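User: Show me an example of a complex going from sequences to structure tokens.

Assistant: Sure. Here are the input components:
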Amino acid sequence: MENEAGALSRVAGLFSARGYNIESLSVAPTEDPTLSRMTLVTSGSDEVIEQVTKQLNKLIEIVKVIDLSDGNHIERELMLVKVKAVGVDRDEIKRLADIFRGCIIDVTDKSYTIEVTGTSSKLDAFLEAIDNSAVLETVRTGASGIGRGDWVLKV
Amino acid sequence: MNEELTGAEITIRCLQAEGVDCIFGYPGGAVLFIYDELFKQDKVRHILVRHEQAAVHAADGYARSSNKVGVALVTSGPGVTNAVTGIATAYMDSIPMVVISGQVPTNAIGLDAFQEVDTVGITRPCVKHNFLVNDISELANTIKKAFYIAATGRPGPVLVDIPKDVTQQKMTFTYPEKISMRSYNPVIRGNLKQVKKAVELILSAKRPVVYTGGGVILSDAAKQLTELVKMLDFPCTNTLMGLGGFPATDKQFIGMLGMHGTYEANMAMQYCDVLIAIGARFDDRVIGNPKHFYNENRKIIHIDIDPSSISKRVKVDIPIVGNVPDVLKELIKLLKSTKEDPDQTALAEWWKQIDLWRERDCLKFDRQSEIIKPQMVVEKLYEITKGDAFVTSDVGQHQMWAAQFYKFDKPRRWINSGGLGTMGFGMPAAMGVQLANPKGKVACITGEASIQMCIQELSTCKQYKLPLKIVNLNNRYMGMVRQWQEFFHGNRYAESYMDALPDFIKLAESYGHVGIRIERPEDVEGALQEAFKLKDQLVFLDFITDQTENVFPMVPGGKGLSEMILV
């Protein structure tokens, strides 16, 4: 999409006005600063997804819409989790973070802040693995996606 | 060429460069510099309305009746919020329009300044696109884009919000001759493979129907549509927005379809085997419940410029995305080049069936009535104007009677708010129509409820000497509301009676117009004749009509088209 003020609110407005749901949305400028790339995760029947795609294409500032789930694609989301880490739990949490290939990026004597990257379901799994009462705060970026292999989305 | 101009001057120069000869507006603080520049020139005429809603409706009527882009100019804050109804009306009916709105100065935006409103935010869901011009360097380019976007593809209103300081800044003016946008490239030609498939299906049809909508009118495809339908000898029905796309007096015309469509049109839609939809969008008032939208299995061809209109409510078999006249030309060419014809025996059988449905005479009404029947007034208007008037309407029963009883043979003659259903549209739209067609006969068919929603425009009509003929079908009820209450709410007429009506005759006279009250059927024709003789006068014809009359046929909400309530 064009990297212009208001473009994001047109997308958000379209989804709310037509009753489509947004599960997550992540957007930032690309290597071409006039363009932004947005990854939006939504769900619906084939008919609904077809309409969503057509309606998005109709927005003047949208340059191109593709459904990544039509083909092979890679999807990553970043999560920062602040967890209580005292006594014996400190080691256990460190081990869990290692298993999920997470990094501890901030430490206090009472807590760790862990960075985990992966598909959204991997992040969900990490949260499930940690004792719920230990989780102090989470922040997630929403998924970003790209097609697999040599195929490239260019405008 | 290299002189420095202010933003206000640039705005007016852009309008001139776009060939705009007439705009509709209302001044205010944020647009004072623009008005100052309007004052200093005489190429762009400004029509001062009495309420911003009317400015937009008038620009809308101007656009619909002329195929030029309508232009409205309003100030910030309440100027814009008043205009929103008009913008949404134009958006729902895909009318090419540019609305220029003033905004508080850029350094005041976001500070809750006097007459500040988030115009781009408020109008976003009801425009094709909108812009906030942050810097004078973007101004000319933005206005060029606005006209381009408004008029191309599926047309629609585009709003340009200009902060007051931008109208004061100076810059060298150059108007771009062409614009190209990587993110906006409307399709023109249909996919040839799809057109070929459509030809095959058309040739195999035994019970075909051509169903056309506003897209045929907006894209000026009436000629091609008529050629196609005549060539194939297929029956043709138009939606409310599509009337005039195919001549209503032609025997192949089976009337309007939909909630208040004819028996024959609705039945043909349900029992056809090949449906050719052109510039139409299968909306709820036209096809009823999509789950009940067929009585026989059939195939659908859908031609439309907007891909999102295709398979939105009804799944179609052969979609063709393209500009309607271009696709129709291609279709006609291919049909002419094949040696085949559709099965003539089957077609004759189909016409026999349609003629049987026609015999049901679904639009009959009591012609002996001693009270004026509203249908009769529309019929007489049709006769007296020889079917050649521009007819605008408001929204309600009168709108349906106008659509059913005025036979439109030409496109762009029937101007009404189909999608949004905006009461108050009729008179201001008629002003725009009259200004676009100074020699045309313009009638506004309305009711005593609708007309009061923009009645202040009688003053504008006086100022610019617009000789409209207001045909007020006065039944002292919000008729369509009353009809639904009678059918579906146990005759409980909650708040639908129009009490404390003004004396419309005196009201018209107070503005310097002519008012005539008509209470007997035998006076209808004479009054209409007299009105049209007064060529330079607005005449307000107040017809006191039957309070109990209902619009038939009627497909109740949620039902299929064949489930009509008939007279």
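The lines above are the inputs; the final block is the predicted structure for all two components together. Residues 374-544 of chain B form a domain with the Rossmann fold fold (CATH 3.40.50.970).
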